[in-house]
Amino acid sequence: MNGHLPDDQRLRADLERVFGEAAQPSPELRARVLEHARRSRPGRTPRPRPRWRVPAIAATLTAAALLTVLLTRPDAPIPTSDLVLEKGVDEPARVMARAPLPSVDGDLNGDGQVDILDAWRLAHAPDASGSGENRAHADASGAIASDALDRLMQQIVALRGGAS
Amino acid sequence: MRSMSFFALALLLVLGASASAAGETADRPRVFSVLRLEIDPSGAELSGWQLRADFGKSDARIVGIEGGASPAFTAPPYYDPRALNGGEIVLAALARGQELPTGRTTVAVLHVEHDPSGLPPLEVSELIAVGADGDEIEAAVIQENGAE
After folding, report:
1. Helices (H), chain A
2. Looking at the whole model, is its pTM more than 0.80?
3. I want to staple B106 with a disulfide (CB 3.0 to 4.6 A). Which of A1, A129, B68, B85 is the partner?
4. What is the ipTM of this complex?
């Protein structure tokens, strides 16, 4: 046709001259072919969702919400780590709740261990006032009144795997 | 559907195992004994003590702790409440008052739940006794049954 046209354009022009303008498939044909392709693809058959899935998810979410409410309410069970012993003279120790105190080192004698020897040193340390009064025997009932000593004793008896 | 069946089967197995365990616990006969812990400071004044112990492989567990007989140790010793679930326990106490014991004295009374075959000995892995001057002293712990 035209001598300056590239080869592919010349080929296209020749083909159009022979077959006419290329026929486009109708939308209906396209839809049928697509549907057939979807059906014939292996392993792609859509699986219906199990009916128990929605109730199970709903139950899980409900349980989680209930747990959250139970654990955050004011009278929720107190974690064991916040439990301390209330000391009585004539009765067994009772478990009482107490706000956590700041952590203390406790190794007063520097032997690398926190034990009853450190508690003894703390109990017999002079008062901050300098009176030299025995802190362990400070009150008339003989009860150990010092909060620091109480906490140190709890630290000593705490089981491995967490402070009590 | 297969997943649902598997879930139901697993749930039944868990429930069955729990019921079985509960039944075994309920059927297993248990008895309670009192175990007195005594410390002999060998003539020195006992100003405090600390003890770490357990019942070894026995399933015995401490269910209650009281103070001792000596005026200095009538208050219950300190302990971690989690120890009442079984396993290891650490007990510790400082003497109260000015009168310190120098001889064999009961420092704590333990209430123990165990099987009817007998009260197993408490295996003491650590004992620290404190003298009147705050230093560690030689001492021995003695149990009510005489085991040492």
Report:
1. 7-19, 27-40, 53-72, 116-123, 147-157
2. no
3. B68
4. 0.79
Angle in degrees, 0-180, between the axes of helices A147-157 and A116-123, rounded to the nearest 10: 170
**SS3 letters across B93-142:** EECCCCCCCCCCEEEEEEEEEECCCCCCCCEEEEEEEECCCCCEECCEEE
Residue to mutate among A91, A120, A134, with most B CBs inside 10 A, is: A120
Query: Residue A99 burial by CB count (10 A; 0-12/13-18/19+): exposed, middle or buried?
Result: exposed
**Considering just the CA atoms, what is the radius of gyration of chain B in Å?**
21
Q: Is the Cβ–Cβ distance between B65 and A92 less than 8 Å?
A: yes
- For the stretch B36-67, pLDDT in tens is 999 999 999 999 999 999 999 998 999 999 99
Q: In the block, which residue shows the tokens 């197995």?
A: B13
B123 beta partners:
B54
Q: Does B122 touch chain A (CB under 8 A)?
A: no
